[in-house]
Structures are given as C-alpha cells and as structure tokens.
Write a structure and sequence with these properties.
The protein is α/β, with parallel strands linked by helices and about 400 residues long. About 40% of the residues lie in helices and about 20% in strands. The protein folds into two domains: about 130 residues, 3-Layer(aba) Sandwich (Rossmann fold), CATH 3.40.50.300; about 260 residues, no CATH class.
Length: about 400
C-alpha cells in the first residue's frame, strides 16, 4: 500500500528553488521512501546514493561530483538523494563542494535518521544553502487517504475548528493508528506479533547505532533504562532529579539523556507556557513518545497520539509557511491543566484537551482560554460521532473527525 505523505507537497515545491532539502525525522518514518518516490516522479531513480554503501563513499572521496556520470540524458535540473551522508566525517564539505559546483543543475535531497538540525549546530558551513523539513509518523489524514494541501490554516483557530469539526470520520484508521502506531511498516502490517518484535528492536537500534556513533554518550544502557521509564510517565511533568534517581545518575546527566532522546527522535518534550496565565506554575516538561504503542494506559496512549498529531502539524505548518508554530501545555498553581496549547508566531492560538470519552469540558479550560486572549478551545475525544459547538470559541469533537482532513 502506498500512502501519500503531506510533506511531499511541501518539501518538493518548486517555490524553494535550488535550495537543498534536508529531511529530518524519526528513523523508519519513511524518509527514504519519500525521497525515492520524488526521484521516481522526476525519472531520476539512478541518483539515489546511500552513504552506508562503501562504494558510494569511495566514489565521493575521489570526486565530490561523482554523480554527474549517472545523470539520465535530458534531466536538468535533476533530483538527487544523498541518504545518511551526515554520519560520516567531512560530510558538510563534501556536500558544500557538490552543491556549489552544480547546484543550478540539481535539486539535492539529504535524508538521515539522526536529527539533522542537531548535527548542524556547530559551525554551519552550509548556511543559506538548504531548508530543513520534518517527516513525522503517519498522520490520520494520510492514513485515511486525504492528502490535501497541508498549508497553514488561514485565519484564526476558530475557522480551522469549524472546518474540521464536520470532517469525514476515519474511525477504523484511528483504531489502527492507536493500536499499531504511526510508523509505516508496523502500521500497514496490522500484526500484533510483528509490532512486538519491531518495537523491541527499534529503540535498541537507535540507541546502539545512531546515538553511539554520533555522540560521546558511553552508558547507553542508562539511556535505554530512561526510555523504558517514559511510557509510564506520559502526560505528567518529569523531574530530572526523580528520573535520575531511578536510573542512578545525577540530575544533570538525566537532563542530558532526555535531551538525547529528543535529538534522536525517540521522545519529545512539551514545555509549559506561562505568559498570560496568572499564578502559572513553572514546572518541568512533559515527554511524549513517537512510538505511542509502548504506552499501555488507554487514556495516556490517546493523549500521546494527540500530542504527536498536533506536534507533527505544527512542524509541517512551520515548514510550509515559514511561520513559527509550536506546541506547549498550560498548568497553574492549583494544578489545573490543559493538555495542549498551539502557539503561532509566539502568540497563543488554540487550546486542546484530550479525553477518551465525551463530556462537558471542565470549567478551568474556559478560564485558561480567556486568560490567553479568548482563543478557541477544543476537547477532542476518542469517542466517535461527536461534533458539538458548545458556545462561541468552545468545541467538543471526535478525534476521528477533527484530524481526518487537513
């Protein structure tokens, strides 16, 4: 089964001109497939190069523009993919030499399983030559076959909620996502036995291979122990002192390990938003997993999936428009909390609460949304057949409707 990905309409848009496209995201999210499909559509299949292949590395060492010999006749500008190039010493200079020499005649796609924008932090010799795009696990709308133009929502969040509250239900697709996750291979196989084997190997391979080869972290067993703790902590602010005590490391080391889990796309933090909230509680981040199937509790797994869906949309909207979308949570000193706050250009845009069952929203959400400037609030539930505008600015909507379209 071939699934159209929203990112293909964004990353390969001709509007980006000659700039290289860096495709970052979790391992096995489909970056290579995305790139190869683009090469196929441009009839440039021969211009895919995997840097794990020793023959490719040897060719590149002798000539940074080795690929010129493989260009099909009449294919200018040609699309070319350099996969996993960032794992090897001197990759920036190799890429810079190739791009500066023939950038007008080629459209470079650079993909990798580790976080490319993390690899760029120190001394970026490629400045001004690329745009970074993010491929996340499957969206519900992609699985449901609704790959509409993923442009940024126009207008305010109220318009977006109104348009999506009456979306075409995708009940079966949502059930599949929650049970088998958003990584294409286990999601499409729909096999519980395959998922168990895949999940057992996935985190180990990222920690053993990517983290080991790209960082100076030596105690990888402690990192794995920390990752195994996170499913039971989903949805709760995490204390670095507490998790450090669990795995017998210092709080600074625990903080570093959490950062590495984010750098290598195993988990991501949600930071608290404190502006505009009187008596706000500045606490630690909450962490969510890209592989939400590791979370056993039904409510926590659903919340984790909603977090991934919203974060993925925020990243894609940012990639598509150049605007700044981000995801946070809100919590006050009475420990009243709204699960998610979508921020647009550093201003609150939409509040979202995740619930398994439908019901009247708790009163503190209204206080939160008014404190944030009267932004819209949506209670999104696992229960199907819900689409209610409670009052102006307040909605209750089933997840299978809200996220089935773009």
């Amino acid at each position: 089964m071939i699934i159209d990905r929203h990112l293909s309409r964004v990353a390969f848009d001709s509007e980006w001109g000659r700039q290289m496209r860096f495709i970052a995201g979790p391992r096995q999210a489909g970056k290579t497939t995305l790139a190869r499909r683009q090469l196929e559509s441009a009839r440039c299949e021969a211009l895919y190069y995997l840097w794990d292949d020793r023959a490719v590395r040897l060719r590149a060492r002798s000539d940074a523009r080795f690929f010129l010999k493989d260009v099909p006749p009449g294919r200018r500008p040609a699309w070319i993919c350099l996969d996993e190039i960032h794992k090897f010493p001197g990759w920036k200079n190799t890429l810079k030499a190739a791009f500066d020499g023939v950038g007008d005649d080629f459209r470079f796609i650079v993909t990798g399983s580790a976080k490319l924008d993390w690899m760029r932090r120190a001394g970026d010799s490629l400045a001004g030559r690329y745009f970074t795009f993010h491929l996340m696990p499957l969206f519900l709308s992609e699985l449901a076959g609704h790959p509409a133009d993923p442009g940024s929502p126009s207008g305010d969040a109220g318009d977006w909620l109104r348009d999506h509250a009456s979306g075409v239900p995708a009940v079966a697709e949502l059930s599949g996502l929650l049970q088998f996750g958003g990584f294409p291979e286990p999601c499409l196989r729909q096999s519980a036995r395959f998922l168990r084997r895949w999940r057992a190997e996935y985190a180990d391979s990222v920690i053993r291979e990517d983290l080991a080869s790209l960082t100076r972290v030596t105690d990888r067993e402690r990192v794995r122990e920390l990752y195994d703790l996170l499913p039971g902590m989903v949805g709760s602010p995490i204390s670095e002192s507490s998790v450090g005590a669990h795995i017998q490391v210092s709080p600074p080391t625990a903080k570093s390990y959490l950062q590495r889990l984010g750098d290598f796309y195993l988990a991501f933090p949600l930071r608290p938003w404190s502006r505009n909230i009187k008596r706000s509680l500045l606490k630690a981040a909450k962490y969510y997993l890209y592989d939400w199937t590791a979370v056993e509790s039904e409510g926590a797994r659903f919340e984790n999936w909603v977090a991934c869906e919203l974060r993925g949309r925020a990243l894609l909207w940012s990639d598509q428009t150049g605007e700044e979308f981000s995801l946070h949570y809100v919590r006050n000193k009475q420990k009243q909390e709204t699960d998610f706050l979508v921020v647009r250009n550093r201003r609150p845009w939409m509040l979202v609460e995740a619930k398994v069952s439908d019901g009247p929203p708790d009163g503190h959400h209204e206080a939160m949304r008014l404190a944030l400037g009267g932004i819209p609030f949506c209670q999104v539930c696992r229960q199907p057949d819900v689409s209610v505008r409670v009052r102006p600015g307040v909605w209750r909507v089933s997840a299978d409707r809200l996220f089935s379209g773009w």
